[in-house]
Amino acid sequence: MEGARPDVETAYPNYPNNYKAGWGYMLLTHFLPDGGNGTYTQIAMATDMEGNEVTLGSKTITADNAHAVKPFGAIDTPTQGGTASGKNFVNYGWALTPQPNMIPVDGSTINVVIDGVVKGHPIYNGFRSDIATLFPGYANTNGAIGYYYIDTTKLANGVHTIAWTVSDSGGNNDGIGSRYFTVINTEAGDQALEVRGQGSGVSDERRGEPPCSPVFDPCSPVFDPYSRSLAFDEIITVEIKELERVEINLPGPGVAPQAIWYEGYLVVGDRLRELPIGSALAKERGVFYWQPGPGFVGEYRLVFIEKDNDGQLTRKNIVVNIKPRH
Fold first, then answer.
1. DSSP letter assigned to residue 276
2. Residue 227 confidence (pLDDT)
3. pLDDT tens string 252-275
4. Which residue, 32, 100, 101, 141, has fewest beta-carbon neighbours within 10 Å?
């Protein structure tokens, strides 16, 4: 996935498609043999375009769904890596939670999250025979299905992330169905948020974009605290686990935004790139949202530029450290 592993890209600068080296897979362990109770071995293999094959490695995992307490489920549409278009694209999914708890049938504790932004709640409590047969005896067995209409014209054409977050009556919560999908519309709608980067002024010669930034000297380290063009703020570190959502108020907690606008970039080495896939920046309010998809793990250095009413530019350096879930 593009931009998922900037550390790998930096370590192997001369390899083709090095900015797409990261990958991930979200496994619903309930579908493993014996209902996902026992020890299993996962093996990852890669094949290149010339037919060369290599084993990347293997991991032994232990699953214990018999004693699980968190909600689980999956998203059916959009499909993994699939496409979506139009004002009323139907996002289908399902969710269950172990007894004795239940998920409210009005769907009020299920959030649809796109690029880190909560869009709303699905219509929940629909029946589907395959889910009812596979998972009998749950409080929501006969009403596990939900759906939500996505207006994809409010999203930029390109790759996005989607996930559901689910809470049950016992206060247990988890994210389900995290995946990537691509929006393709012939006419882009008005954007309430700038998804990822600004699309110009990002330093990346491979994609034919300008080799400079509108706010940085591209020949200077972007974390240089002695930059003459920008005021300097300290580096703020935020730590989350894989697939968790992050929301950062750039003006600071409880502080009303004084800026005219914000811009944001991902730092790769000493170069600036668009913000990561699955993120969104509310440029006028100064709020950064990110729902990292599968494959994003490690340290991500982000730079945000704030312009106030007097034209003063202030840089905010934020490091998001994504830890493995297990």
1. P
2. 47
3. 666 666 667 899 999 888 788 899
4. 100
Query: Average pLDDT for residues 122-141, to the nearest whole number?
Result: 97
Q: DSSP letter string over 25-45?
A: ----GGGSHHHHEEEEEEEEE
Instruction: Provide the whole-model pTM.
Output: 0.81
Q: Which two structure tokens, joined as six digits, stand for 263?
A: 């811009």
Spelled out in words, what is the top-level CATH class assigned to the domain 194-323?
Answer: mainly beta
Alpha-carbon distance of 112 to 84, in angstroms, equals 15
Q: Which of 252, 276, 274 has its CA nearest to residue 263?
A: 274
> How far apart are the C-alpha atoms of 161 and 299, rounded to whole Å?
19
Do residues 146 and 182 make contact, with C-beta atoms less than 8 angstroms apart?
no
> What length is written for the chain?
326
Residue spans of the domains in the chain: they are 6-65, 70-183, 194-323
CA neighbor of 279 nearest in space, from 259, 297, 302, 257: 302
Q: What DSSP string describes 6-31?
A: HHHHHHSTTSTTGGG--------GGG
pLDDT band with cut points at 50, 70 and 90 for residue 165? very high
Task: Assess whether the previous peptide bond of 100 is cis (omega < 30° from 0).
Answer: yes
- Decide if 70-183 and 194-323 have a common fold: yes
Tokens of 236: 């703020």
HSE toward the beta carbon, residue 75, CA cutoff 13 A? 29
CATH number assigned to the domain covering 70-183: 2.60.40.650
Give me 45's structure tokens: 């293999």
